[in-house]
Design goal:
The chain has about 500 residues and is mainly beta. Among the domains are: about 20-55 and about 70-120 and about 130-140, no CATH class; about 420-500, Immunoglobulin-like, CATH 2.60.40.3080. The protein contains two helices and 43 strands. The strands form five sheets. Strands 1, 2, 5, 8, 11, 14, 17, 20, 23, 26, 27, 30, 33 and 35 form a 14-stranded parallel sheet that branches. The protein starts with a helix and ends with a strand. About 50% of the residues are buried.
Length: about 500
């Protein structure tokens, strides 16, 4: 007992210590490396306003689930130059917010697992950041992630990528989300997911002049770099939804990808193709690119992308793709017969103007005029829950990224595949809600709380070992006002949601 009391007495000062702000510049730390060496869980590393040289390398910057570390900056803080602005190896429970990266000669921001595939970088939030022109022309990326799991990138802006690289490049990343970001003037890709990347959501982003392949679902990766090392695919379970695309040689490419879905997007005037189906990794272990879905999308194209609309390469399985409820309109040829989909596009609409609002501008909202033939013509789906503008989809939904007839008010209902059960208790909840579920795939689950306007307010990733689980979701940190919300639980392929009532 005495020993326990002694240990507790030793721990109390550390437990009671308040989180600190560690300033860089203007009398503070000389740079990120020095500040990170002194940082503890819960601390904030703050760049003063001004321009700071890139090139920092930081390993093992790790917070805790209840005490994340934050790297941020005052207004006007810019990280300029260096091979990378920062290279972060094996970070965990880390938030990066409000910084500008520009002029790097390699990758703008590089995050990796240090080559230890069994201990990924994990639990990262990157928000409200901006990437500007790289000082590079080769295969260089503005945000490079290798072996990163359980992450979110949201409300960021990526401008003028390297001609030979990606704005975001993922190698062997898992359980991540890209939400409400803007991409302008890409080189090869805006977002590339390859090397065994799996369970990624790409939702409500704007892609303007997206390069060769605005979203490259898959790619070509050297065998030693896969995570896991024996992955039989470049990408799997990538969910691309409620995005808008203007330009790009091909807005969508499935490349060595399986079990991926592109749904409820609006694609406007692609330069050459709408979709490419390719297989670049041809080792014997790889399955052919196939079993993918393209559904509820609006595609407005000209003759440049009309023949062919799909580019289908060798060693693929295009006969396994599913197409349904897409709207196709050729602005140059009202008599166009439709795209060369490799399997029939069931219940598609061909040759009718979707009546988009202001699509040609980079900031156009891509909404639908009230007489649009896309309104109410989509196939009901369990996800996405909200459209490009952050409003709920109706039932049945409109085709495309923007709901033309959003629900005005009322409690959003519940949805679940027949094989899944989901119970919430207590209801109403206060600071904690228990989530009892059965039927979703074991592994990394995503728990997301939305308000009734569709805004995402809380996001958690949880590792599960069995299909039957009871999870404890802490609501206190989100500071949610009393009211009705909606809780989404997803395993990457199936999504379940329920109304959630919160009291003080």
């Amino acid at each position: 007992m005495i020993l326990r009391l002694f240990l507790l007495a030793c721990l109390l000062p550390a437990m009671a210590a308040e989180a600190r702000v560690l300033f860089i510049g203007d009398g503070g730390y000389a740079g990120l490396e020095a500040a990170a060496a002194d940082a503890r869980p819960g601390d904030t590393i703050m760049f003063r306003s001004g321009v700071f040289a890139g090139g920092a390398f930081v390993a093992d910057l790790q917070g805790r689930p209840d005490a994340w570390i934050t790297i941020t900056g005052e207004a006007g803080a810019r990280i300029q130059g260096g091979t990378s602005a920062f290279q972060l190896t094996d970070p965990a429970y880390l938030r990066i917010s409000g910084l500008v990266f520009e002029g790097q000669t390699g990758n703008g921001l590089n995050i990796d697992d240090g080559g230890s595939y069994d201990t990924p970088a994990r639990h990262l939030l990157i928000e409200n950041c901006e990437w500007r022109s790289l000082a590079a022309t080769g295969n260089n990326d503005q945000l490079k992630m290798s072996g990163v799991d359980s992450f979110t990138v949201r409300n960021c802006r990526f401008v003028d990528g390297s001609p030979g690289g990606s704005m975001i490049d993922m190698v062997g990343c898992h359980a991540g989300a890209f939400e409400n970001n803007t991409f302008e003037n890409a080189g090869s890709n805006c977002i590339q997911a390859k090397g065994g990347t799996q369970y990624i959501r790409i939702e409500r982003n704007r892609f303007f002049r997206g390069g060769q392949r605005a979203i490259n679902i898959g790619g070509s990766t050297g065998l030693p770099y896969f995570r896991p090392i024996d992955a039989p695919f470049e990408a799997s379970h990538i969910f691309v939804a409620a995005n808008v695309f203007t330009g790009a040689v091909a807005p969508i490419a499935y490349v060595g990808a399986v079990n991926c879905a592109v749904v409820h997007n609006t694609i406007y005037l692609p330069e050459k193709w709408v979709v490419r189906i390719l297989q670049e990794s041809t080792d014997a272990r790889f399955v052919a690119c196939g079993n993918n879905t393209f559904m509820n999308n609006i595609i407005v194209l000209g003759n440049a992308a009309a023949a062919p609309t799909f580019n289908i390469g060798a060693n693929t399985a295009p006969e396994t793709f599913q197409f349904r409820n897409n709207l196709w309109y050729n602005v140059d040829n009202a008599a166009w017969g439709g795209p060369n989909t490799p399997t029939p596009d069931l219940e598609s609409i061909v040759g009718r103007d979707p009546l988009l609002r202001a699509p040609a501008m980079s900031g156009g909202d891509f909404g639908l005029e009230s007489s649009s033939p896309a309104i109410g013509r989509g196939t009901p789906m369990s996800a996405p829950l909200v459209d490009f503008l952050g409003r709920p989809f109706n039932v049945p939904p409109s085709i495309g990224a923007v709901e033309g007839n959003p629900p005005v008010s009322g409690i959003i209902g519940s949805s679940a595949p027949e094989t899944v059960t989901l119970e919430l208790y207590p209801q109403p909840a206060r600071s904690v809600v228990n989530v009892s579920l059965d039927g979703l795939r074991p592994g990394l689950l995503q728990l997301v709380v939305f308000d009734l306007s569709g805004r995402m307010l809380l996001w958690r990733s949880v590792e599960t070992a069995t299909a039957s689980q009871t999870l404890r979701l802490d609501l206190a940190g989100a500071r949610l006002a009393p009211g009705v919300y909606r809780l989404l639980v997803s395993d990457g392929t199936q999504s379940v949601y329920r109304p959630l009532l919160i009291l003080r």
